[in-house]
Inverse folding.
């Protein structure tokens, strides 16, 4: 069985203009580096929640960059109370630009759940002049209607309450999956054009790269029909929706689903980057256990044992 | 590399990670409770499939099946579980019984408190499904979410080695942020008390360990006249593994619940005992009424100590487990435990079967039937 303990991770703290920090972890590919995959975390998740997915991508030749959102859980600046869709998009853009400036080939974006919606906007708007756009965009269990998803996750329909004028104080808070979030999230999401599937469809339509959306048939937070609708605009670039049957939004610890997703992600990304598709290496049980345990322990110690990023990595 | 071309429409495809209706799909299903539906027909199919799998791959299982004139076709038709071949725990102590699969295996060992250790070979898929059974039970009985914090009264994975119980509870770190409180065989009770005392308002603890160490924790706190109020933190206490060497100072379940409530502030109904053994690949969880619910895929029967015939509901006998979740060994186990199985719905509202452990088999005459079972597998070694 392989071991994950000798993997040469590196950490990398990005500073935004006002001095806020975004904590990133780079995990090198075990074989030939094809492209870097940037993985912004889903709501309530942090770097280590994607340890086994990252490990699988590494084994199949992709370097990964994961980070914690600002104003969220994890090691970046700010509390989740102040989360907004705009801040998520800013962080993805910052991470993307930093990786694109470092790499010789355009990175890929892998957005999960709520972060997938923010990743769509980044891919649609593109980075600044002189920086290539992503080689491809993979959306995993993607939120395509922020209002629907956050209504479901808050159990009280908080975004709808805001839209209908039943909630009006942006500094009051609402519980969204065990975390208190200010209603500024709702205000700024409405003002920023994040609500509904129409805006998502328009942004996907103008995204200049292949897009694959992988959704779950029994997802209580994301309706597969909405994902298909958001992806349906004709494009010169390939658009593909995969619906995983008999599966919910909660894919945490579901090895058959994890393997299927990894195979789909790896081969779609290989196609996006012009690499041959084919065999996908899966981490073995011991490897997953060691990787997850190691990364959880690193996080508890603020990644003190993980060396800083160097250009040689 | 993909490039822009003529406008195209979206391609949609549907995929399924596991065969429809398979035991794998049941284990990893968390979207609706299988404990509230009748799974008898599915369970029979899973048992038939598992028996066929192991008959193809395990010489020891084949030998016992032949001796009992067992055929999977007959089981599929009759649904008569009394015909299913069983391997006694004594057999697992004498020999390793693999069902040949691809790839490596982990040799999992029992604690061996009564002498010889059982050794069970588990491959990746079997280990994954074991953790899957834990996650399934946590979803059903313990309000599982990833934000819980686990306090393990046991060693970390690297110290647990192949010892099944220690390894099992060390796997908490796959699911939760976890701290371990046994290092170098020393229970660090002071550090545990400090860690529990430092819990934040929104941190949800799950304390996992053998009842003996839990009692050590509670008594240490009582000695210091300490009392925590964890009730508002959505806490759970999960015990497993039995009292074993701590049997001499074992307290009743009611007393353990009561002391946990008085000392930790954890309501007694949130103290749950889990049942597993190295030969079994699924974990049996207690509900809020503290009754042990058999997972939908697992068959538990009670056998007469005299002739191993099936005992009726509520009768005491030797517990036998047929666990189709294991692929790298036949988890068709005649245990060393006496107990009962109830078929009536539990007051918690779940249907299915509830198992109750009475005590270990300890008299020679009680073990007689199990020893007879061993003779079949002993021949395999010659």
């Amino acid at each position: 069985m392989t071991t994950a303990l000798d993997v040469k991770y590196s950490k990398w703290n990005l500073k935004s203009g006002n001095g806020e920090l975004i904590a990133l972890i780079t995990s090198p590919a075990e074989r030939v580096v094809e492209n870097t995959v940037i993985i912004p975390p889903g709501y309530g998740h942090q770097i280590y929640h994607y340890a086994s997915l990252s490990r699988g991508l590494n084994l199949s030749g992709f370097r990964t960059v994961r980070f914690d959102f600002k104003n969220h859980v994890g090691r970046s600046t700010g509390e989740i109370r102040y989360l907004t869709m705009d801040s998520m998009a800013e962080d993805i853009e910052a991470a993307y630009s930093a990786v694109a400036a470092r790499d010789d080939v355009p990175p890929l974006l892998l957005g999960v759940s709520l972060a997938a919606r923010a990743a769509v906007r980044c891919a649609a708007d593109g980075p600044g002049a002189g920086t290539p756009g992503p080689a491809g965009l993979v959306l995993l269990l993607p939120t395509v209607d922020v209002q629907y998803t956050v209504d479901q996750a808050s159990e009280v329909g908080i975004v709808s309450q805001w839209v209908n004028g039943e909630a009006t104080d942006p500094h009051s808070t609402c519980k969204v999956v065990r975390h208190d979030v200010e209603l500024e999230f709702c205000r700024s999401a409405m003002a920023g054009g994040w609500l509904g599937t129409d805006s998502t469809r328009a942004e996907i339509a103008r995204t200049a790269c292949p897009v694959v959306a992988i959704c779950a048939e029994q997802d209580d937070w994301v309706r597969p029909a909405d994902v298909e609708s958001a992806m349906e605009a004709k494009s010169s670039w390939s658009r593909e929706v995969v619906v995983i049957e008999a599966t919910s939004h909660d894919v945490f610890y579901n090895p058959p689903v994890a393997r299927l997703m990894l195979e789909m992600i790896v081969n779609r990304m290989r196609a996006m980057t012009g690499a041959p598709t084919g065999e996908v290496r899966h981490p073995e049980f011991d490897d997953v256990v060691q990787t997850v345990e190691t990364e959880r322990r690193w996080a508890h110690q603020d990644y003190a044992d993980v060396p800083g990023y160097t250009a040689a990595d | 590399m993909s490039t822009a071309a003529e406008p195209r429409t979206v391609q949609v495809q549907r995929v399924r990670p596991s065969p429809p209706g398979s035991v794998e799909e049941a284990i990893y299903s968390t979207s609706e409770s299988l404990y509230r539906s009748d799974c008898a027909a599915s369970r029979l199919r899973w048992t038939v499939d598992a028996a066929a799998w192991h008959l193809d791959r395990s010489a020891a299982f084949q030998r016992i099946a032949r001796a009992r004139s067992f055929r999977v076709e007959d089981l599929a038709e009759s649904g008569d579980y009394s015909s299913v071949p069983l391997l006694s725990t004594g057999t697992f102590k004498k020999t390793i019984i693999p069902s040949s699969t691809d790839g490596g295996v982990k040799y999992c060992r029992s604690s061996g408190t009564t002498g010889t250790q059982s050794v069970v070979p588990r491959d990746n898929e079997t280990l994954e499904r074991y953790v899957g059974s834990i996650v399934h039970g946590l979803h059903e009985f313990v309000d599982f979410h990833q934000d819980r914090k686990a306090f393990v009264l046991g060693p970390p994975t690297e110290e647990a080695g192949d010892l099944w119980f220690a390894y099992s509870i060390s796997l908490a770190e796959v699911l939760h942020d976890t701290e371990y409180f046994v290092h170098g065989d020393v229970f660090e009770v002071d550090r545990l008390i400090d860690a529990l005392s430092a819990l934040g308002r929104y941190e949800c603890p799950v304390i996992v360990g053998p009842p003996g160490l839990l009692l050590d924790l509670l008594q240490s706190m009582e000695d210091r006249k300490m009392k925590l109020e964890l009730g508002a933190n959505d806490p759970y206490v999960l015990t497993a593994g039995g009292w074993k060497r701590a049997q001499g100072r074992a307290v009743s379940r009611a007393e353990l619940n009561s002391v946990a409530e008085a000392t930790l502030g954890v309501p007694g109904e949130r103290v749950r005992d889990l049942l597993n053994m190295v030969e079994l690949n699924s974990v049996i969880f207690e509900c809020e009424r503290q009754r042990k619910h058999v997972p939908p895929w697992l068959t538990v029967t009670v056998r007469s100590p005299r002739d191993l015939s099936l005992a009726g509901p509520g009768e005491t006998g030797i517990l036998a487990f047929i666990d189709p979740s294991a692929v790298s060994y036949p988890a068709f186990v005649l245990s060393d435990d006496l107990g009962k199985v109830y078929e009536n719905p539990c007051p918690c509202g779940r249907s299915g079967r509830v198992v109750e452990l009475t005590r270990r088999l300890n008299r020679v005459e009680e073990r007689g039937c199990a020893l007879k079972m061993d003779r079949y597998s002993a021949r395999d070694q010659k």
The longest helix of chain B spans residues 40-57. Residues 376-382 of chain B have pLDDT under 50 and may be disordered. DSSP finds 13 helices and 17 strands in chain B.
